[in-house]
């Protein structure tokens, strides 16, 4: 017994050192990600300013080309009728044409240099975004490892026999958590954060235009208002995806119907919600699980099915609630798909839906074949417990 305690202490010591090292590495990776993110934003701002410069320069070149062309025409007229002009007039016309040619050549070169610089910035932006994407992926992977290693090992001697099973389950749960966090972070970055960065750029443009063109400033301010309005809409959508508060306010069935309506508006796929039986209020965890599985099923339909119609049938019996999500899409080979799905990397797809249902002692089934659509069927006890 004493030997076991010593072994566990030693394992804990090794794990502590490992966790400290991983923590340090995670912080360094996070710093790299932050630097890459800042560089991306800086390049985007610089690109926006450069595009404005190129636009102005193109207009200047167009005007100069007309002036230079007119000066050459005038010089030709003077050359044909040089007896009608004084030596000073001839010299003045020649100098003007020459100066315009030089100025036009310089402006064209400046335009070419700016275009080359813009291309270089675009390449830099692509490379910086690649670094950012890799760093974010590493942060997620390290986060999974770190959180798993930081688990409580006080009962290791008693649970060592079940470690393999718990390890698989633990990794799947932690990966699901990290993917959910990553999804939320991505939604915020691609939505509100991107919009706010755009607001900063637009504000800087407004400041520069303030003393030049009031009408242009007014247009930019209108754009700003629209961007802020869309950002607010994105934030509300993210909050709703995290926790559909309407379940608490309206109840499960009205929330599903509203989600189906919004899904139809967004995707153009017709959604019919059919309710059979007398629906009763259930445990909150049962309602949210049912909603999440329906939500994921619709998400998969949007991504993969090419369906035109979806039916969500919700049937209540004395002890169970049965849900069928059926589409008329392209379908798929279920057996082949399940073989391709890695145990650990199931994510929020088929395995994610199955696990949610089975955690509440439910049953989950997929019926599909190529060209004949897909039906996702799941049944959960109303109280979320076995009989």
TrEMBL record:
Coiled-coil region: 33-67, 104-138
Pfam family, one: HATPase_c
GO MF, any single term: protein dimerization activity
GO annotations of cellular component type: membrane
EC number: 2.7.13.3
Name the record gives this protein: histidine kinase
Stretch forming the signal peptide: none
Highest taxon in the source lineage: Bacteria
Reaction(s) this enzyme catalyzes, per UniProt: ATP + protein L-histidine = ADP + protein N-phospho-L-histidine
Domain Histidine kinase positions: 290-384
